[in-house]
C-alpha cells in the first residue's frame, strides 16, 4: 500500500512575514451590522420579552423540536429550531441528505458546501430558523462511538474544513447553523453523567479546532453537550462557554443547551444564552422562564447578562437575514427540488474502493450476477418503519437517533442493480438473507457475487440488537463474516460492499482468496443503489478516501468506551496519530482509497514567510486574526496517468520541527479534490495558515516553533512515510554494524567464504570465489562523505550498549544487517548449511531497535542470502527506509552508494516473497525424506492460494520515481490441446512457439530517470486442473527518462499457457485466460483476457 510521496523541508527563519489574509466568511462588519440592529431591538424589549427570547416554551409544545415565543414589538417570530445535521427531521417532503461522515469521505469542499446550501434551502422553505447541525463533536476518538457518523471523522483539520463549508452553505441559504455538541461528548454510554477531563493542549489541538473553524465561518449558534467537562457540566461550564468559545474564539453568536442539558438557573452566569426545549421531557422542571426572571430581578443574574443573551440571539437572526420575508413554519412542506443530485453525488464520490484484485471492478455487462445479503434490499416493513431509523433491517443509509431524517424514497442496492441488469441483459439472482446454508447454490456459476454487509450505531436512547448507541464491537452485523466466507468459497469473484457507520474489521473477509474487491459504501442515504451502481459499473471512477483508519484489531485503536469518567489519557494520539506514534500498521490508512485510474505527483515547491513565536493578532471570529494568515504555500503537479477519467485527493501532512514539544509524527494540514481526464495534468496549491504550523502552549497560546518543518505530500496518510532516501549531502552520517566493514581478518580469510564476519558479499561453499578486492559499504560511504563534506562516524560493532551516543544528532543512521547460509560441509555460527531461522544475524533486531530509538531517521541495509523477517524492524517509528542489498560481491559499497545517494534510482525487484512469519511459507526443512506435499504451491503461489498477506510480495521493489501502466492489448492464436511437435532442445518444438502477444504502455511519471520491471502473470481458465491463482509468464526491464514513455511486448509461448498432464504431456486448456500486468505479483493494475477454443 505504498503511495507516491513527495517530501520537502520548510525552514522558518526570522524573515519579515508577508501574510495573506484568509477569507473571513462572516466578517466583523456583518456581525457589527447585525449587532447594531440587535441592540436597537433589545432596547425596546421588556425584561419578560428578553426572558422569552432565551427560554424555550417547553417540550413538545410547538411546531418544532425547539421553539421560543414570538415577540411582536420587534417583529421577532416564534423561533423554530429543528434537527438535524442531515436534513429536516420529521419532514415528509424533504430530502434525506447523506450523513456527515459520507460527506467527509468525498474530501470535496464543493460538495460539502452544496450539501449545506441545499439543507439550508429546505429548512428555510419549511420555515425552520435554526437547523441543528453540523456536528463537530463527537470528533471520533472511539472507533465504535455511537454518533461518530453524524460528524466528519476524527481528524480536526478535515472536520474543521467540513464544518466551515457546511456552515457557509447553510447560512448562505438563510438558515442559522448550530455547531454541536460542544464539547468532549465522545460516547453515548453515560453521556448524561460522565465527566470528560482533558489537558489544555489536547483540547485546543483536537477537540476545539473544528469549532474554531465553524466560528471563523460565522456560525450563528453552538449547542453545549450533556457531559461534564473537567468536572463541570458543559452547559454550566464558564471556562468552555465564556473563556474558550466567546473570549478566545471571538464567538458572537449564542450558546444553546442540548435538550434538557441545563442543570441550574445560574447557568446564565456561565455563558449559556438559550435553554432548550425550556423544560424537562415531562414538562415539570423549568429552570429559566419565571425562574430566570426572578434571578434577574433579584440580581442573581445581571440585567446586562440578560441583555447580552437576547442580543446574541437576535444578532444571529439578523445576520442571516431572517428579519424580512421569511416563510411560515410548515415542516411538512415539499421542498426537495433537485437536491437528490447532491445526495447521489456525495454518496457516489464518498465510496471508497479498498481492494480490487485483478481488475474485478468495474463490472462489464456480466452474463450472470448474484446479489447476496439482507442489506441489499430495503427494509421489508417500510423504509421509515423504525422510529428515528432505530433498526438495522434491510439496506443501511444512515445511523439512528435524533440526527436522522425520514426517507422520501429509498433506492436500495438491489433496485439499482436490477435496473442496470435489465439494460445489460444480465441474469440477476437475489438471496436476500444472511443465512449461509444455501448461499452456495445461489452464487455458483455467476460471473460475480456481490455481498452486502452493514454495521450500525446511533444515539443512546435507542438500543438496536443490544447496541445501546455505541457499537459493542467492530465486526460486521448479521453474521457478516460467515456470510462472506460462504459466498467466497462458492464464487471466486466475490465483491463485498460494506455500508457502515464507521470502521469495521475486515481481516476475516480479506483472508478469503475468493474476495476480489471490497467497496466501502458508507452511509449513502436515499440514493444508495444509484450511487453504488455508478461506481460498480465504472460510470464514475471511485474517488472517496477513508475519513478514519481501518485497523487490523479493535485494540489497535488504543481507546475504549469508558464505563465511568474519561480522563482522555491518549491525549493528542487518536486515529492515525496514534497508529503513527505507536508504529502500528493499519489495514487501511486514513485517507486511503483506490481508483480505476492512476495518478502521479511531481514538482513539489514550498515557499514560506512564517516567523516563529506566538500569535499576536487581535481576536476575530475563530481566534487571533493572524492565525488565519497564509504563511506558507505548497504546490505540486498531479497527472492522471491512467486510461479513464477520475478524481484524486492530494493530501498534505506536516511534521513539526524536532525542537517543538512532542507531537504526532504528522498531521493533516491540507487537501484538495482534483478531477482529471485521462492523460490530463493540473497543479494543486495548498495554503498553510499560521495556525496550521502551530502547537498550543498553555501560557503563550498558539506558537509557531523555530526549526525545520517537513511537508509530506501523498495520496494517503500511510503513504507519506518516504523521502528518507536518496541522501542529499547530509551534514552528519552515522554508520552502524559489523557488516559495514570488510572482514578484519582479511576479505578471503575464511575457506570458501565460510564465515559471516564483516560485510557479506556471497554465501559459503563450493559455489564461491575469492575476492580480488572488496569495497565494503563503509569504504564507499567514507569516499562519498569526504567529497560532500559530510561528518561520518562508524560504530563497527553489533553491541547495543553504546550505540545511542554514536547516532544521536546524525542526519541519518545507516545500520547494516546480514543473514548467511551455504553448503552443508561448513557450519557457520551453528548453521550447518541451511539457516536455522529467518532472523537477521548478530543481534540484528536489537541493534536496529537501539539505533532507531536514538535516531528518528534510521536506514536499514540488509545483505542476505534470502528472505529475512522484518516485522521487528518495521515496528520502529524511527526506521524510515529499508534497503534490500542482497549479495553484491566485490563491488558492495560502490553499488550501495550509487543507490543511497540517488546516482541511480533503485530498480531491483524481489526474486522471492518476504513473509511476516516463517510459518507463512508453508514448508520446513525435512529431517528425513521429503514428500513435497505442498505440490505446486511454493513462495507466491502458496501465499496466493492460501490468501496470506506477505510483508513484501514477489516482484516488489520501490524506486525514486513513479511509473504508470496503461493500454493493455492482447492478441492470441493459441489452440487448445497437447503439444505435438517433434522433440527439440528443451522439449517438443511447438512448446516454444509464440501463441499470444501482450503489449502495454509504461510511463515514467516522476521527476528522475529510472527503470521499472513490468511483470506479466497468467491465470488459467476455470475449467483447467487446479493451479496457482497466477503464475509469472513474462517480464522486462524498461529504462526511462523522467516523463518518457515506452511500449512493452510480452511474447507468450505455448508452454506458458500449458499445464502438465501425466498422460498427454503439456496441454493448453480450453477457456478464458486472464492476463495481469503490473509492477509486482500483487500490484497488477492492467487486466485482460483471451479465449482459447
Quick rundown:
This protein is of the alpha/beta class and 1093 residues long.
Structure report:
With 1093 residues, the protein is of the alpha/beta class. Among the domains are: 32-74 and 253-330, no CATH class; 340-546, Rossmann fold (3-Layer(aba) Sandwich); 599-714, Sandwich (Immunoglobulin-like); 732-901, 3-Layer(aba) Sandwich (Rossmann fold); 963-1092, Immunoglobulins (Immunoglobulin-like, Sandwich). The chain is 20% helix and 23% strand. It is built from 23 helices and 49 strands. The strands form 14 sheets. Strands 3-4-5-6-8-11 form a six-stranded mixed β-sheet. Strands 12-17-16-15-13-14 form a six-stranded mixed β-sheet, with helices on both faces. A hairpin with a 2-residue loop joins strand 9 (228-229) and strand 10. Helix 1 (28-42) crosses helix 10 (303-319). It is globular. Pathway: Glycan metabolism; cellulose degradation. Its EC number is 3.2.1.21. It catalyses: Hydrolysis of terminal, non-reducing beta-D-glucosyl residues with release of beta-D-glucose. Pfam families: Fn3-like, Glyco_hydro_3, Glyco_hydro_3_C. Keywords: Carbohydrate metabolism, Cellulose degradation, Glycoprotein, Glycosidase, Hydrolase, Polysaccharide degradation, Secreted, Signal.
Task: Identify the overall geometry.
Answer: globular
How many beta-strand runs? Answer: 49
Strand content: 15-25%
Helix content: 10-25%
CATH topology of the domain at 340-546: Rossmann fold
Termini Cα gap = 38 Å
| Main beta sheet | 6 strands, mixed
Low-pLDDT stretches are 1-24, 718-722
Return the structural class: alpha/beta
CATH class of the domain at 340-546: Alpha Beta
Spatially, the strands of the biggest sheet line up as 3-4-5-6-8-11
CATH superfamily assignment of the domain at 340-546? Answer: Glycoside hydrolase family 3 C-terminal domain
Number of helices: 23
Radius of gyration: 32 Å
GO biological process, one term: cellulose catabolic process
Main location: secreted
Signal peptide: 1-22
Protein name: Beta-glucosidase cel3A
